[in-house]
Amino acid sequence: MHRAGAPGLSRSGKPPESVISLNWSDIPQNRLNIPLTLTSGQCFRWEQTPEGEWYGAVGNSLVRLKPEEAGFWWETYPEPGRWDLIHRYFALDVDLEGLYAQWRRREPRIAPSLRRWAGLRILRQEAQEAFFAFHCATCNTVVKITRSVRALAQRYGEPICDLNGKTFYRFPDVKRLSDASERALREDLWGFRAPRVIASARHLRMQEPGWLESLRERPYREAHAELMRLEGIGAKVADCICLFALWHDEATPIDTHLWKIAVELYRPDLRGRSLTPALYQSAADLFRDRFGAYAGWAQQYLFLDALNAGRTYTT
DNA sequence: TTTTTGCCTCTGG
DNA sequence: CCAGAGGCAAAA
Asked: With A119 labelled, which of A14, A39, A87, A209 sits at a CA distance of 20 to 30 A?
């Protein structure tokens, strides 16, 4: 497992004027590609400035990042120097190179994707934000999910702090969402997903506090089954929540793209078949057999191939 | 078990 | 203008 040396606080050389107050981490882009990771469709609230800086809410903090090839500048607000936040959010304890080697042994055909998307990571996101954001993913586009999630945060979220004349918001808590109006959510483009968000918020509110986070400690299969009991959460959204909100790295969401890839790579006999619950299960198990405990991470590389054919991302 | 259909709304053919 | 978008659930 990789460890960031002195916890990201070391300074290298002379920082440019604009980043004079930022901290430096020497984790290079091929072990953490920030722009790629933040635009890979797993999170929806980061904003990039024309200067190439990234601003995003992580829990009740605002994180500011300026990536470079050899590492990245960073700061947190309002409490500065929270390297622990960044280390966890980007799952920097996970050894990417080791995963690549393991995956290539098991499935050599993944090699081009690993080159194309080198440094892509699965984020350790706040449970509730990812839980609700992926309610929005059913039959939707990343562009529209982004608009919907941001609108929701501005409408019902508590402000974190102001920076450069802009206010950044927390993701709304369950109480606010359970009292939200369906009409407001529909104005924010949630469409037929709006009542599902409110229903899920009410469900969470009826559980013990911390119930959602407690699913992180349960085995993946149990967490997945628990989520599927909620109205409006099927196998695919449950897997997105398991992977992105609950940090179950073996969860492999099978969307329409991954289904085609599974058919192409392993089951040409199923070409043209629709994705039934039984076939969903077998496809997901297939990827888990192939890629192991971090199959969800491998899935994200294959997903990006389909989502963004032709795009490569170095800085 | 599987396929079909409706559901919000935007975008690319 | 239509089909499809990181689906889901109800119905047959």
From this structure: A14
Q: What is the mean pLDDT of residues A10-20?
A: 47
Query: Measured CA to C1', what is the nucleotide nearest A303?
Result: C6
**Close Cβ partners of A143 (under 8 Å, ≥ 6 residues apart):** none
Find the CATH number of the domain harbouring A132: 1.10.340.30
Enumerate residues 6+ apart whose C-beta is below 8 A from A208. A214
Return the pLDDT at A1: 34
What pLDDT does A151 receive?
98
Residue–nucleotide distance: A152 CA to C6 C1' (Å):
20
Residues 198-237 of A with CB under 7 A from strand B: none
Nucleotide with the nearest C1' to A144 CA: B10
List the CATH number of the domain containing A259.
1.10.1670
Structure-token pair, residue A136: 């929005």
Same domain membership, residue A158 and residue A48 = no
Contacts of A146 (CB under 8 A, 6+ apart): A44, A45
Shared-domain flag, residues A138 and A203: yes
Q: State the catalytic residues of A.
A: 236
Q: Report the DSSP beta bridge partners of residue A162.
A: A167
Residues A105 and A146 in one domain: no
Q: What is the pLDDT of residue A111?
A: 97
Average pLDDT over residues A255-266: 95
Of A208, A226, A248, the residue at which a domain comes to its end is A248
Which regions of chain A does DSSP assign to beta strands (E)?
23-25, 47-48, 54-58, 61-67, 72-77, 159-163, 166-169
Cβ of A139 near strand C (distance < 7 A): yes
Interatomic CA–C1' length for residue A15 and nucleotide B13, angstroms: 48
Range of the domain at A90: 2-116
Residues 284-313 of A with CB under 7 A from strand C: 303, 307
Q: Are residues A174 and A285 in the same domain?
A: no
How many structural domains compose chain A?
Answer: 3
Kindly report the bases of strand C lying within 7 A of a protein C-beta atom: 4-9
